[in-house]
Amino acid sequence: MGPLTPEQRRRRWMALAIVALAYILSFFQRFAPAGIAQDLAAAFQTSAASLGVLAATYFYIYTLMQIPTGILADTLGPRRILALGGIIGGLGSLLFGFAPTLDLALVGRTLVGLGVSVTFIAMLKLVAVWFEENRFATIVGICMLVGNLGSVLAGAPLSAMAQATGWRGVFIGVGVISLALGVLCWLIVRDAPTATGEAVRPRFDRTVVLSSLLAVIRNRATWPAALVNTGMSGSFFTFAGLWATPYLMQVHGMERSTAANHLSLWFGGFAVGCLFIGGLSDRLGRRKPVMIAVSHLYVAIWLLLLSCVTMPLSLSYLLFALLGLSTAGFSLTWACAKEVNPPLLSGMSTSVANMGGFLCAAIMQPVVGWLMDLGWHGEMVGGARVYDVGTWQNGVLAVTLCAALGAAASWRIRETRCRNIWQAA
Q1: Is 380 helix (H, G, I), strand (E, B) or coil?
Q2: What would be one Pfam family of this protein (predicted)?
Q3: What φ, ψ does residue 384 adopt, rounded to 5°?
Q4: Interatomic CA distance for residues 294 and 367, integer angstroms
Q5: pLDDT, average across residues 38-56
Q6: d(CA 29, CA 174)
Q7: Which of 139, 134, 115 has its CA nearest to residue 16?
Q8: How far apart, in Å, are the Cα atoms of 269 and each of 117, 322, 373, 390?
């Protein structure tokens, strides 16, 4: 990439700021069910398995959209798909907020997942096109830090707002903001630093697109990064996206506000970790050792959660902050996938690496709920089911095994020394 003019530099930061705001909403929508799980269970009189399906609907559609989004980012460009995504996601959030039944809530969550599914891959494409290659992980880390404000808001702040004003009003407001950001993406974002704003990209030709996608999928170096992402982000999305708050309340006897504070610490640690780990990897000029270290620390913390051991509150807070920092390790998987594939296909390569975690969460959230329902003894509090420690351990074990998969795959990551090492055959 050649040097940018001052106007182009200004435009890239403006565009990135708008997309980062959309990414905040994406993270908020992803983790919001955890902060209001008890409210949703009571509002729709649902079991753990049905609640898992409601939360997982977002992840199902998000997973299905990852490869199409990568293709669209490389062909149509980020601007168009970001604008359309903001509108669809906004309408879905409005429907979810107004939904009188579980069925309509499911439709709303599906539209939300469809709308926000394009945000991250489009953001990665913008960073890949507008910024220098050796700054990719650092810039993505900054975006993750900002985006994670949404997950932090989905913890204690959402819980407090839901108790004060009701959860429906929150999602209606988020829907309006999403619609506004969709319009801003169309007005401000440009696909590339060229005179026309149009990027050089593959022709929108089915044969070209499929051959490009197959090239990424057939590249064996793509898959270790995808598996690390599957294990680490899949376990993160599964538990933090729905089960963390009920787990802390029912296993450790915490008040709802205290449990929500733990969730916010997890998200906050993740936000800081994305910035720190991406920057550390870029400065060291290494990907693999950093990935191995954080993924194994992540599994160790999950083993503590699985034990359900009682600990002082201060130590519990520290553990969740550390959990957040280690969770951020999977943010390197996008750089790892991008750097072993053709630069022109950065959208497809990052989307392939990214889809595993969402697929894992889509499957695991209902599975964890099903495991919980198997051990339920009929106890109800405030219209929501209550589970004993042994039942919770069954659910947490399934999530811990996902985390272990990610750690095992980290040993197969190909070291790129933070540069693109793809070679044409």
Answers
A1: strand
A2: MFS_1
A3: -115, 145
A4: 26
A5: 78
A6: 9
A7: 139
A8: 23, 7, 31, 28
CATH number for 280: 1.20.1250.20
Cα 378 to Cα 71: distance, rounded to the nearest angstrom? 48
Report the share of the chain in percent with pLDDT over 70: 94
Contact 232, 135 (CB under 8 A): no
What is the pLDDT at residue 202?
46
Q: What is the pLDDT of residues 294-306, one digit of tens each?
A: 999 999 999 999 9
Position 300 scores a pLDDT of: 97
The partner residues of 385 in beta bridges, in order of sequence, read 380
> Considering the domain boundaries, does residue 405 fall inside one?
yes
Structural domain boundaries enclosing 16: 6-197+205-412
Secondary element (H or E) of residue 381: strand 380-381
Between 148 and 312, the more confident residue is 312
Which ranges constitute the DSSP H helices of 166-221?
Answer: 167-188, 206-218
Residue 423 lies in a domain: no
Number of H helices, E strands in the chain: 19, 2
What lies within 8 Å, CB to CB, of 183 at 6+ separation is: 83, 86
Q: How confident is the model at residue 207 (pLDDT cuts 50, 70, 90)?
A: low
C-alpha span between 250 and 387 (Å, rounded) = 7
* Overall number of domains in the chain: 1
- Going by C-alpha positions, the residue among 141, 181, 45, 192 that lies closest to residue 333 is 141
Tokens representing 418 are 């933070």
Q: Which residues contact 256 (CB under 8 A, 6 or more apart)?
A: 38, 159, 163, 245, 249
Over range 70-78, report the average pLDDT.
80
Domain membership of residue 82 (yes or no) is yes
Structural domain contains residue 1? no
- Beta partners for residue 380, in sequence order: 385
Angle at 248 between CA 242 and CA 254, to 5 degrees: 130
Helix (H) or strand (E) holding 385: strand 384-385
Q: pLDDT tier at 394 (50, 70, 90 boundaries)?
A: very high
